[in-house]
Design a protein that fits this description.
The chain has about 475 residues and is of the alpha/beta class. It is built from 13 helices and 16 strands. It folds into two domains: about 300 residues, FAD/NAD(P)-binding domain (3-Layer(bba) Sandwich); about 170 residues, Elongation Factor Tu (Ef-tu), domain 3 (Beta Barrel), CATH 2.40.30. A hairpin with a 4-residue loop joins strand 4 and strand 5. The longest helix is centred in the last third of the chain and has 27 residues.
């Protein structure tokens, strides 16, 4: 254990994971969270790691899906987010979805009870004080204006931003099950993770989604209603902010063509209506949102429609004619930095280094990622989570995991190499710290396109499993080496 502390700004998924990882390595952490003293446009509680959009961590298939692989890698790294996510799992087919309240409460409790973690409530309004030698900024997409402006001045870069939309949540008891039915697409069941048995015992048997069918006439009327509904007006400074493709408002998708939704969140394939002996033209799916199974969110139905319009339009969906909404959809602005340009391979700001040509004899801090140096007593600022331009709950937490480990190893005097590019952790880190084009950088989910190709000839259907096997073998080697160096 050391007396030097790491200050982490932001108690979301990334900040919570970073705090846990650093503390588990024996380094004291002060976790700064501004809620409830300063609220955001999307959060509803003061809990750490609160989920404000979907309750899904997406696919849990480690052999055939990149995010499922990332789940498994994080589990092997003793991730707090994946540990508590598994305990709070609710049925969601092949995905890992959680009861958001149980999940947040468990993460908050674990961090409060850790002897090396101190949680301080209040806004860090500007750059962190210079006496904070090691800092991780993990303020996420809803970074406070004061801190965002300070980051912009520090980096010399204009902030990049996009809109993120929130899907409505429906009370299950208000859904007409004489019209709707339970079924996962292709009857899939989640097969990964430590809580498979528990998920299946609670209903994770291939019937985890509520499906609301539409015929062609109903679908066309619904699309027209989406297009003509009154929308939230943007402020002048928001008008040119791009959407992230992975969280597109449903009405924006509808505007791209009459069939877009049928090939997106409303695709009818893999589903069979037990009430009618006819093929569905389109289907709206709802996924369980809490452990009690009383709330369901509308999958892919993020929206910027005004509240009254949401009620009117969504009541057109068969089975939801009298639906009662626990939460209507919403829209908020997200911010992220140009990480490929600003961050080195250990998530540090590059402008903290001096060129090697000015290096003084005996100075330390030179890295393979940046051939400059930094004084031993200089402040080190790292970034983690969604503010780095990774997209998705698990991706954000994984970057927090790495930032926490990098910061702790630096304080402990341990040389910790980045995880191999063949792993999901390494592939995502490589993308946001140099693999992406800085001129066109946009948020990115983990995907196999970020991994280096396999050697030799591999049949297409075997590529993903082969990449996953390679990743897990390389991750285990990386973890083993780091454990020996820390011993």
């Amino acid at each position: 254990m050391t007396e030097r502390k790491i200050h982490i700004i932001g108690g979301g998924l990334a900040g919570s994971e970073a705090a846990w990882q650093a503390a588990q390595m024996g380094v004291p952490v002060i976790l700064h969270e501004m809620r409830p003293k300063v609220e955001t446009a999307a959060h509803k509680t003061d809990g750490l790691a609160e989920l404000v959009c979907s309750n899904s961590f997406r696919s849990d298939d480690a052999m055939n899906n990149a995010v499922g692989l990332l789940h498994e890698e994080m589990r092997r790294c003793n991730s707090l987010i994946l540990r508590e996510g598994g305990k709070a799992a609710v049925p969601a087919g092949g995905a890992l979805a959680v009861d958001r309240d149980i999940f947040s409460q468990a993460v908050t409790k674990a961090l409060h009870e850790h002897p090396l973690i101190t949680i301080e409530r209040g806004e860090v309004a500007g750059l962190p004080p210079e006496e904070w030698q090691s800092v991780i900024i993990a303020t996420g997409p809803l970074t406070s204006p004061a801190l965002a402006d300070a980051i912009k001045k520090l980096t010399g870069e204009d902030e990049l931003a996009f809109f993120d939309a929130i899907a409505p949540i429906v009370h299950k008891e208000s859904i007409n099950m004489d019209v709707a039915w339970f079924q996962s697409r292709y009857d899939k069941v989640r097969t990964g993770g430590p809580c498979r048995a528990e998920a299946e015992s609670e209903g994770g048997t291939g019937k985890d989604y509520i499906n609301c069918p539409m015929n062609r006439e109903q679908y066309e009327a619904f699309v027209n209603a989406l297009l003509t509904a009154e929308k939230t007006e943007f402020k002048q400074w928001e008008k040119d902010t791009p959407y992230f493709e992975g969280c597109m408002p449903v009405e924006v998708m509808a505007s791209r063509g009459p069939e877009t939704l049928r090939f997106g969140p409303m695709k009818p394939v893999g589903l069979t209506n037990p009430h009618k002996d006819e093929r569905c033209y389109a289907v709206v799916q709802l996924r369980q949102d809490n452990a009690l199974g009383t709330l369901y969110n509308m999958v892919g139905f993020q929206t910027k429609m005004k509240y009254a319009e949401q009620v009117r339009v969504f009541h057109m969906i068969p089975g939801l004619e009298e639906a009662q909404f626990a939460r209507l959809g919403g829209l908020h602005r997200n911010t992220f930095i140009n990480s490929p340009k600003l961050l080195d391979g250990r998530l540090c700001l590059k402008n903290q280094y001096m060129p090697s040509s000015r290096r003084k004899p005996g100075s330390s801090g030179e890295t393979a990622q940046d051939p400059g140096f930094r004084r031993d007593d200089a402040q080190v600022i790292r970034f983690a989570g969604q503010i780095t331009g990774c997209e998705g709950y698990v991706e954000s937490a994984s970057v927090g995991l790495l930032a926490g480990r990098f910061a702790a190893s630096e304080i402990l005097g341990i040389t910790m190499e980045a995880p191999p590019a063949t792993t999901a952790l390494g592939a995502l880190l490589g993308h946001i710290t140099g693999g992406a084009n800085a001129e066109t950088f946009q948020p990115m989910n983990i995907n196999f396109g970020l991994f280096p190709p396999l050697e030799g000839k591999v049949y297409k259907k075997e590529r993903k499993p082969a990449m996953s096997r390679r990743a897990l073998e390389d991750l285990d080697t990386w973890l083993s080496v780091n454990r020996r160096m820390a011993a």
